[in-house]
């Protein structure tokens, strides 16, 4: 029983960190531009496909895997720049409904393009050689790849949190997010800051796609799988709050994982219950307001 | 230095300023008096191109800047201190000042911010305090300090005395005059406090319902008491 719980907690942490990797960019762009990007999951998927196109399905070296993931981040970041230029920039002063519709249209467009380029087939991509190992520690099997995902989630969180809270650039970005009018009057070029935020957000989606690729069945539906979890984490964490998204992702991962032990006949329902409970009890999220 | 010629300003469909012309010369200190809603804040926003739609000519140092955005005008030497202060709560007092200094490294901006804060008695020991933790008077001084940190050639002050204790207002007047003189900064001050405006400036405009209704020296203003009675009396 203890082993079962230990494994559930470890799996929950892995799932939570995977969700955070996707949620990070989503909450970042909401925090700064107040845009809820419905298409975020498809750019995550695009990152996975780009990584797959570079690596193929066989195990690659760790260096090749990380470089391919970085390349995916750059490609998807470029797509973010184009998205900002064509869509977000035009809608910055519009009602949020227009942005929701526009990003939903973008979701359909990117999904369609992915189907045209890579087809509808499911593909399985093996992790890098060094991450194919499984360790047997304290009576439970721990896949090296899961440890890698947890570590990647923590590293991304620390970089984002430090970048936003401690660095001068982060404080400037926060100033634009909190009071764009004053920021502009102080001589800050808001457009550049916002475009940079979109590019970083999309890069995070692309990098998440690359990092999580070996764990998934790669198909045009990949984006949907994590988008729901990421959206839930962003809502529970407090819209636009990176720390909130991090904590909420861990919570959701643990809730989902533990519920498979407690309620094996009702898979997947616990996350929706958690979302409903949070919306009823604390609609502003764990941390209210953008970070 | 700054020359507005027949500008009309709009918020969406609302027409706020009507054919306003105004000039501020090099190092000159100018006041704009008017009641609440007369168009004073809109005038300053129009000069900065901050949230308004402006038709007409705005010239800065002889150059038409109508197409320049607010951040470009700020970098070009115009600083606006808004009425509602808009201090950043996520930053310390020192960072709030430093962020206004564009085009230099962070360390230079912070050093300059420390120097400015050190010269303001009310803020000299508060550099590490968060911006949101200051009193109203302290926040107002911080907003002025932030405006000065940009090293502007023209500073636009929007009702800096609002909500401040009389003793603070008196000190602020002396402080603004000495800083503008020392740094050769021109001043455009929008105020309802006639005493303060007169103390700080040499030329005065009166604005009412979005139109300039008086333009002259303080002596000329004093010669026409009906102007104050008609356009400034509460």
UniProtKB/TrEMBL annotation, chain A:
Q: Does the keyword Transmembrane helix apply?
A: yes
Where is it chiefly localized? membrane
Q: How does it sit in the membrane?
A: Multi-pass membrane protein
Superkingdom:
Bacteria
Keyword vocabulary terms for this entry: Amino-acid transport, Cell membrane, Membrane, Transmembrane, Transmembrane helix, Transport
Alphabetized InterPro entries for the sequence: ABC_transp_permease, BCAA_transport_permease
Which subcellular locations apply to this protein?
Cell membrane
Single GO BP term: amino acid transport
Assigned GO CC terms:
plasma membrane
Per UniProt, what is one GO molecular function of this protein? transmembrane transporter activity
TM spans (from-to): 6-28, 35-55, 61-88, 100-120, 140-160, 192-213, 225-254, 261-281
Which family does the entry's similarity section mention?
Belongs to the binding-protein-dependent transport system permease family. LivHM subfamily.
Record-given protein name? Branched-chain amino acid ABC transporter permease
> Which species is this record about?
Nitratireductor aestuarii
Question: Where is the organism placed in the taxonomic lineage, from the top?
Answer: Bacteria, Pseudomonadati, Pseudomonadota, Alphaproteobacteria, Hyphomicrobiales
UniProtKB/TrEMBL annotation, chain B:
Picking any one GO biological process from the record gives:
L-amino acid transport
As one GO molecular function, the record gives: ATP hydrolysis activity
Please report the stretch or stretches of sequence annotated as the ABC transporter domain: 2-234
| SMART domains in the record | AAA
Q: Where are the transmembrane segments?
A: none
Q: Which UniProt keywords apply?
A: Amino-acid transport, ATP-binding, Nucleotide-binding, Transport
Family recorded in the similarity comment? Belongs to the ABC transporter superfamily.
What is the protein's name according to its record? Answer: Branched-chain amino acid ABC transporter ATP-binding protein
Q: Species name for this entry?
A: Nitratireductor aestuarii
């Amino acid at each position: 029983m203890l082993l079962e719980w230990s494994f559930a907690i470890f799996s929950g942490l892995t799932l939570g960190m995977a969700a955070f990797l996707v949620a990070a960019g989503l909450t970042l762009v909401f925090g700064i531009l107040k845009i809820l990007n419905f298409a975020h999951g498809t750019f995550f998927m695009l990152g996975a496909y780009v990584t797959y196109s570079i690596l193929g399905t066989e195990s690659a070296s760790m260096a090749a895997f990380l470089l391919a993931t970085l390349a995916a981040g750059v490609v998807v970041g470029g797509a973010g720049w184009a998205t900002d230029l064509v869509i977000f920039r035009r809608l910055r002063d519009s009602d949020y409904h227009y942005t929701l519709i526009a990003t939903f249209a973008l979701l359909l467009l990117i999904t369609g393009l992915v189907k045209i380029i890579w087809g509808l087939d499911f593909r399985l991509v093996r992790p890098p050689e060094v991450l194919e190992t499984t360790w047997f520690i304290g009576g439970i099997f721990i896949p090296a790849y899961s440890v890698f995902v947890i570590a990647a989630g923590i590293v991304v969180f620390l970089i984002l949190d430090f970048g936003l809270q401690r660095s001068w650039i982060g404080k400037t970005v926060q100033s634009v997010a909190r009071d764009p009018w004053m920021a502009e009057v102080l001589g800050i070029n808001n457009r550049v800051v916002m475009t940079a935020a979109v590019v970083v957000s999309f890069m995070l989606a692309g990098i998440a796609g690359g990092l999580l690729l070996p764990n998934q069945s790669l198909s045009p539906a990949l984006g949907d799988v994590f988008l729901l979890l990421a959206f839930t984490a962003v809502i529970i964490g407090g819209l636009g709050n990176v720390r909130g998204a991090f904590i909420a992702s861990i919570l959701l991962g643990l809730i989902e994982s533990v519920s498979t032990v407690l309620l094996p006949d009702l898979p997947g329902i616990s996350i929706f219950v958690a979302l409903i409970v949070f919306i009823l009890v604390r609609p502003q999220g764990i941390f209210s307001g953008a970070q | 230095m700054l020359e507005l010629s027949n500008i009309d300003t709009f918020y969406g469909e609302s027409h706020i300023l009507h054919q306003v012309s105004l000039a501020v010369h090099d190092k000159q200190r100018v006041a704009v008096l008017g009641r609440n809603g007369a168009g004073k804040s809109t005038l300053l926003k129009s000069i900065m191109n901050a949230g308004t739609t402006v038709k007409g000519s705005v010239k800065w140092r002889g150059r038409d800047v109508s197409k320049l955005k607010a951040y470009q005008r700020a970098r070009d030497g115009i600083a606006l201190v808004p009425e509602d202060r808009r201090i950043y709560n996520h930053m310390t007092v020192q960072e709030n000042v430093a962020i206004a200094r564009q085009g230099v490294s962070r360390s230079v901006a912070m050093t300059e911010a420390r120097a400015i804060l050190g010269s303001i008695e009310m803020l000299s020991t508060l550099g590490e305090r968060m911006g949101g933790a200051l009193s109203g008077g302290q926040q107002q001084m911080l907003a002025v300090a932030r405006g000065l940190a940009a090293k502007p050639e023209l500073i636009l002050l929007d009702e800096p005395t609002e909500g401040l204790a009389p003793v603070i207002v008196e000190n602020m007047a002396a402080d603004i005059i000495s800083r503008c003189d020392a740094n050769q900064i021109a001043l455009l001050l929008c105020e309802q406090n006639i005493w303060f405006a007169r103390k700080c400036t040499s030329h005065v405009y009166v604005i009412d319902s979005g139109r300039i209704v008086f333009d002259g020296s303080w002596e000329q203003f004093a010669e026409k008491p009906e102007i104050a009675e008609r356009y400034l009396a509460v």
